[in-house]
Specification:
heterodimer, A: mainly alpha, 2 domains, about 0% strand, B: 2 domains, flat
């Protein structure tokens, strides 16, 4: 395990959030690579557990970075992982919002979005496979994952119910 | 009360803070549904069309989509400090909740029952990500290039474990170029 370098963490997260077009799930694989593989600050399982815990909290699902920050270094860690999340939102959003009011019909926005969409899909798929490999030890874990997919694609249920089912399956020793 | 696109209702910083607190605290598994309900139906600050435009813009920009929407709406109604008030409402409470979870995790995270519970929940979290991928893939244009870029991004980041910055710098411009060529 490396010594925790908070400023390194801050700058890495800052770069990542500028790349997070398509939402927080796109940078999940690189956050995992940085914290677990490159620096050994968390184990595979700790990473998966902290991510999952934050998914049952209210608010945007990006808050797992705040939880990881807290786990690593308390309030300083929260600052190092959460402030970078705000920087693109505040700077780029206001800039582009301004440009958009001026040039409402610019079509490059649509082209950028259409072009990057497939990359987003590839990255979210990478996130799903990393999480599955970590937590699903055998077919029973995969069964819960597939059950979740089937429900989400058919029913407009609140995901909290599904997390409840998963928690119950864990407690009774199914996984 | 029906409002046109041009008039902006006067909105105080406190109202922004409270509204975005309400959106944040009621949004489990996706804030967009609650944002629409609060901003269009309850407060009538935005029309349906304005909301869709701002949300689309938020999706184009990096970071959590609804956070980008929060910044734009706060800024639109009450300037810089309005944006700050809205963001404080939207992120402040979830921050405190996850820190509370962090404290519990440090105390009880190692208990076998908690471990089992979290394992089951993580399998669900993976399923949610997978379902997102499937939903997104269903609206991809029917041509070969999106699948190629999707596959390259997956292999580069998910299998080779190359840094995202390299992969995005290489693939991003090419993918946007492909989308641009196809449009003409």
């Amino acid at each position: 395990m490396d010594r925790l370098d908070l400023s390194g963490l801050f700058f890495h997260f800052l770069i990542l959030w500028f790349l997070a077009i398509g939402g927080p799930s796109t940078i999940f694989p690189d956050i995992h690579r940085y914290l677990v593989e490159a620096h050994g600050l968390l184990t595979n399982v700790q990473f998966a557990e902290l991510y999952t815990l934050a998914q049952v909290a209210p608010g945007p699902n990006a808050m797992y970075v705040t939880l990881i920050g807290w786990h690593l270094a308390g309030w300083k860690g929260v600052a190092a992982t959460t402030i970078p999340l705000l920087v693109p939102a505040v700077t780029l959003t206001l800039l582009v919002g301004h440009l958009n009011e001026r040039y409402p019909n610019a079509r490059f926005g649509r082209v950028i979005r259409r072009g990057l969409m497939p990359i987003t899909i590839g990255l979210v798929f990478a996130s799903a496979t990393i999480l599955m490999r970590t937590v699903n030890h055998d077919w029973r874990g995969y069964l819960i994952t597939l059950f979740t997919v089937a429900v989400v694609l058919r029913q407009p249920w609140n995901p909290l119910w599904l997390f409840g089912v998963g928690a119950l399956a864990g407690i009774v020793g199914f996984v | 009360m029906k409002q046109t696109d041009s008039e902006k209702p006067g909105v105080s910083r406190l109202a922004l803070f409270l509204s975005f607190s309400r959106i944040s605290l009621s949004s489990f598994g996706g804030a967009i549904f609650w944002a629409r309900r609060e901003l269009i139906d309850r407060q009538r600050w935005l029309t349906e069309r304005e909301f869709v435009e701002l949300f689309t813009l938020g999706q184009l920009l990096p970071g959590p989509n609804v956070l980008n929407l929060t910044v734009m709406i706060g800024h639109r109604f009450a300037g810089w400090t309005g944006a700050l008030a809205a963001v404080a409402g939207f992120l402040g409470w979830p921050c405190l909740v996850v820190i509370g979870m962090g404290i519990l995790y440090q105390h009880y995270g190692a208990l076998p029952q908690v471990q089992q519970m979290l394992t089951g929940m993580s399998s669900v979290a993976a399923g949610l990500l997978l379902a997102t991928v499937i939903k997104l893939a269903m609206v991809l244009p029917r041509s070969w290039w999106p699948w190629l870029f999707g596959a390259l991004a997956f292999v580069g980041v998910g299998i080779m474990r190359w840094p995202l910055l390299w992969v995005m710098s290489a693939l991003g411009p090419l993918a946007v170029f492909a989308a641009w060529k196809e449009q003409d």
